[in-house]
Automatic annotation (TrEMBL):
Protein name in UniProt: Luciferase-like domain-containing protein
Residue span(s) of domain Luciferase-like: 3-134
Entry's Gene Ontology molecular function annotations: oxidoreductase activity, acting on paired donors, with incorporation or reduction of molecular oxygen
Superkingdom, natural source: Bacteria
InterPro entries registered for this protein in UniProt: Luciferase-like_dom, Luciferase-like_sf
Length: 156
C-alpha cells in the first residue's frame, strides 16, 4: 500500500495494512491519516535492515537496496520526510540509481532503513512502534543470507 486511496480502502475494509519499505515514523503518521481506521487495525512496516557493530558497515550494506527510493513510484514514502526536496534534487543530479544510493547522506540512510548497531536498530524500531506500527518486518541484505539473519537477531 502506498497511495492515499489504497490506504483509505485498507482502513475501511481490512483488519490491517502492510506498508512497503522504506517506512519512517513520518510516513507511518501520514499513512494513518489516510487509513483512519474505525476499528482495531494492525499496521505492519517493512524495512531493509542491516545490523553490525560498525554502523558504517551496516549503512553500506543497505545502500544498494535504497537505489529505488529516488524513483517517482516511491514518493509517497519520501514526501513526509523533512529532506524530501533535497532527496529529489539529489536523484535528479545522479546519472543512475546506483550513484544516487552511494551519494545518500548517512543520516538519510539511517532514516530510510534499519541500519546500524544493535542499539541504533532497536531505537529505530522503537520510533516506528511509537508512531503507530504494530509489527515490523526486517528484510536482511547481503550475499550471506544466514549471516544477515544472525545479525538481525542481535536486535531481539
Amino acid at each position: 500500500m502506498r497511495g492515499p486511496r489504497s490506504l483509505a480502502v485498507s482502513g475501511d475494509v481490512a483488519d490491517g495494512t502492510l506498508l512497503a519499505e522504506p517506512v519512517t515514523p513520518a510516513y507511518v503518521r501520514q499513512a494513518l491519516t489516510h487509513i483512519a481506521p474505525s476499528r482495531p487495525h494492525r499496521l505492519v512496516a517493512y524495512n531493509i535492515a542491516s545490523v553490525h557493530d560498525d554502523p558504517a558497515a551496516a549503512r553500506a550494506a543497505v545502500r544498494p537496496a535504497l537505489e529505488v527510493v529516488g524513483e517517482p513510484d516511491w514518493r509517497p514514502h519520501i514526501t513526509p520526510l523533512l529532506f524530501h526536496d533535497e532527496l529529489v534534487s539529489l536523484r535528479s543530479r545522479c546519472d543512475s540509481p546506483r550513484e544516487f544510493a552511494r551519494a545518500l547522506p548517512d543520516e538519510w540512510v539511517g532514516q530510510l532503513a534499519v541500519a546500524g548497531t544493535p542499539r541504533q536498530a532497536r531505537s529505530r524500531l522503537a520510533d516506528l512502534f511509537d508512531a503507530g506500527v504494530s509489527s515490523a518486518v526486517l528484510a536482511p541484505v547481503g550475499s550471506d543470507c544466514l549471516a544477515s539473519l544472525n545479525s538481525l537477531a542481535a536486535v531481539l
